[in-house]
Amino acid sequence: MKKALFSLILLFLLSPAFAQQITQLTSPDGKIQIEINPENGLTYSVSHQGKLLIQPSRLGFSLTKPEVKLSEFDLLGSEEKSVDQTWTPVYGERSDIRDQYRELRLRLKAKSQPAVEIQVVFRAYNDGVGFRYEFPEQEGFKHFIVGEELTEFRLGADHLAFWIPGDYDTNEFLYNTTRLSEVKALEANAKEIDIAVKSPIGDHFVQTPLQLVTDAGYYIHIHEAALVNYPVMQLELDKADFTLKSHLVPDAVGNKAYLQTGTSTPWRSIIISKTPEGILASDLILNLNEPASEGDYTWVTPQKFIGVWWEMHVGKGTWDYSSGKHAANTANVKKYIDFAAKYGIEGVLVEGWNEGWEDWFGNWKEEVFDFVTPYPDYAMKELSSYARSKNVRLIMHHETSGSVTNYERRLDDALDFMVQHDINTVKTGYVGKIIPRGEHHDSQWMNRHYVHVGKKAAEKKIMVVSHESSRPTGLHRTYPNMMASEAARGNEFNNAPTFGLTPEHETILAFTRLKGGPMDYTPGFFDFKLNRFEPSRKTQVNTTIAKQAALFVVFYSPIQMLGDLPENLEKYPDLVRFIVDIPLNWQESQYIKSAPGDQVVVARKAKENGVWYVAGISDEQAREVELDFSFLEKGKTYTVHLIQDSQDAHYDLNPTGMESKSSSVKAGQKMKVRMAEGGGFVMKLSLNN
Ligand code: NOJ
Ligand code: CA
Question: Among the CATH numbers 3.20.20.70, 3.40.50.300, 3.30.365.10, 3.30.360.20, which is that of 303-543?
């Protein structure tokens, strides 16, 4: 009794002060609640229907110039607003995206000297939370250097996590699935001996997008949105209370970000869902990005392409000229163009077309490529007009070999050269250690560079696909010509010398990397043992052929490469036609039965003609999915064209085991489809007249 009285008094004494300070923000549907407390260090917490998912977690900065910590604040004021609008992306998984949230803006003054003013903006959506910091223009404080962002995500429990190790230079890892307490990032990093440039951070560091699953069955997804002038946020895990702390990627001298007032940080995003499908369906990251500026984007044209590319990866040809096996020669490229024309494929990427490949890799060299000088056996002009005469366009390749200074100096000329040759898509690449020396792929300087290239290309109506860039954060909403990037372990990694991809990899990618934006995953390998040209090769593609086809629907991207060599694709002409026919822009998408590490199944309706596609992928286990066609138009009959694994298909033992079947269904009917070990399926449902 005494004890109870004592706590009552304490409450009475403390609560008035606290009550005034604690601010709350609730999502439009009332389920998600954010609580912000500026007392004793600024903190926020997040709960869903009363269940605390993010415990009180710190916010703030430490600056190195001026040297000051911004973590204790006085609240100057706050503003709230509600937004409910719908917008139309240039391309995407659905034609209308609802952007509905409640926003709270806190105006804060640091208790430090100088008394820096910052604003923290929170948004509560029905599917999660976004927040960011803004530095308004103010007297006596303009340029500053960020030493660290103090943002935390205090989880308070040992969730299951789908993670890759923290690293300043690469995201091309296989995913690890463990409890947070089992994260061993250095060990995971060290295992990955096929990744050329790595800069591991420490044993407790992981990258975002990070997918977490709580014991109560909540799916929590942590990432960021609108990363333009700032380093990538990696996360340091404190295993004591399972707190994830922001760790920004440093520059060569250890600073994190050079900013001036009138700016904001990227958004920190937390998607929350009680189902795995809810994570896949969330548009929160896109919604947190700025709309594209008004203008004409009809020149941003979704497309499929093939490439003079895989033949170098598997050792049939080379990028360099002096080997005597130079793949990008005029006659060979013409064959690719003919193949593309035959199947109605829009683009042909040509790698190794330009001088410099003799000694491009690993030397941290400055002037390797000039991006405008073809090798002597590559008739640039002739090929681009040959392509055009066949209704195909060449796709340019700018491998920078990490020498970004060199690329920036030559960028205008390189893009002009493309325009001159009627090429409107470029694949950029950043293999190797970055120049300026000491910069990392994920640093502020590089993130500015990726956006700079995107903007410069847009001035010339050029579309960009990047490799080895930092992972995307939804910027394709703002810059629709920045169509896709690799920024994770892609299909091409199947060819890595020691170890490629596991069958479960793609089922995790959908929940992690793909939430930031489209991936240049390059599905479409139809030949699975990769030792045809170099018998010593051990690696192989660990999927079935039906799964390769399914990926064109499961992984949304407005630009998709059919990865394999024309001669391998040519063995399956019907399958190539089926794939070429798959739309790149959708009216709507519904994720069906999905779970990270197990399977992903999605139904998508084409924007143009109302045709539906349903596709699924499995991990190393065979699985059966029951499809419920309640999404089809009532009373109508649809013709089904199904491509699935044969009974004896298996990613290792029989990857090419495939069946193609026709049938018909009506809305509301059900159908069971089996996926083999490492398998998948894809079906087209066309409305009968
Ligand atoms: C790595 C890229 O991911 C790959 O697609 C490309 O072929 C090579 N670099 C050469 O640029
Ligand atoms: Ca790569």
Answer: 3.20.20.70
In this prediction, residue 589 carries a pLDDT of 98
Residues with CB under 5 A from ligand 2 (ion): 467
**E strands in 29-166:** 32-37, 43-48, 51-58, 61-65, 67-70, 73-87, 97-110, 117-125, 128-135, 143-149, 152-154, 160-163
Ligand 2 center from residue 473 Cα (angstroms): 18
Q: Are 312 and 325 in contact (CB under 8 A)?
A: no
Cβ atoms of 108 and 91 closer than 8 Å: no
How, if at all, do strands 176-179 and 205-206 pair?
unpaired
State residue 6's pLDDT score: 37
Neighbours of 215 (CB within 10 A): 10
Query: Torsions phi, psi of 654, nearest 5?
Result: -155, 70
Tokens describing residue 25? 């923000």
Report angle CA 183, 184, 188 to the nearest 5 degrees.
Answer: 115
Q: Which atom of ligand 1 is nearest to the CA of 399?
A: 11
CATH tag, 2-287: 2.70.98.10
Residue intervals of the chain classified under CATH 3.20.20.70 are 303-543
In terms of Cα–Cα distance, which of 61, 263, 64 is closest to 149? 61
One-character DSSP codes across 449-491: HHHHHHHHHHHTT-EEEEESSPPP-SGGGT-TTEEEE--S--G
Ligand 1 contact via 431 beta carbon (within 6 Å):
yes
- Would you tell me the crossing angle of helices 380-389 and 330-343 to the nearest 10 degrees? 20
pLDDT given at position 3: 38
Ranges of the chain with pLDDT below 70: 1-20
Pick the atom of ligand 1 nearest to 319's CA: 10
* Cα of 351 from ligand 1 centre, angstroms: 8
Report whether 400 contacts 351 (CB < 8 A): no
Pocket lining: 172 vs ligand 1, CB cutoff 6 Å: no
Predicted pLDDT at 13: 37
Where in the chain are all domains bearing CATH 2.60.40.1180? 544-689
How far is residue 656's CA from residue 528's CA, in Å, rounded to a whole number? 8
Write the DSSP assignment of 157-197 as a string of letters: S--EEEE-B-BSS---PPPEEEEGGG--HHHHHHH-TT-SS
- Output b/e per residue, 484-522; b: 16+ Cβ within 10 A: bbbbbbbbbbbbbeeebbbbbbbbbbbbbbbbbbbbbbb
Torsions phi, psi of 324, nearest 5? Answer: 85, 0
CA of residue 426 to ligand 1 center, whole Å: 13
Per-residue pLDDT, 362: 86
Residue 294 annotated among the catalytic residues of the structure: no
Dihedral sign computed on CA atoms, order 494, 499, 504, 509: negative
The whole-number pLDDT of residue 337 equals 99
pLDDT digit string, tens, across residues 76-97: 999 999 999 999 999 999 999 9
Question: What residue ranges of the chain are covered by domains with CATH 2.70.98.10?
Answer: 2-287
Cα dihedral 69, 70, 74, 76 in deg (nearest 10)? 150
431 within 8 A of 403, measured Cβ to Cβ: no
Nearest atom (ligand 1) to Cα of 313: 7
Residue 241 DSSP class: T
Query: Structurally, what CATH architecture does the domain formed by 544-689 represent?
Result: Sandwich (2.60)
Which ligand has its closest atom nearest to the C-alpha of 489?
2
Residue 539: what pLDDT? 86
- pTM > 0.85: yes or no: yes
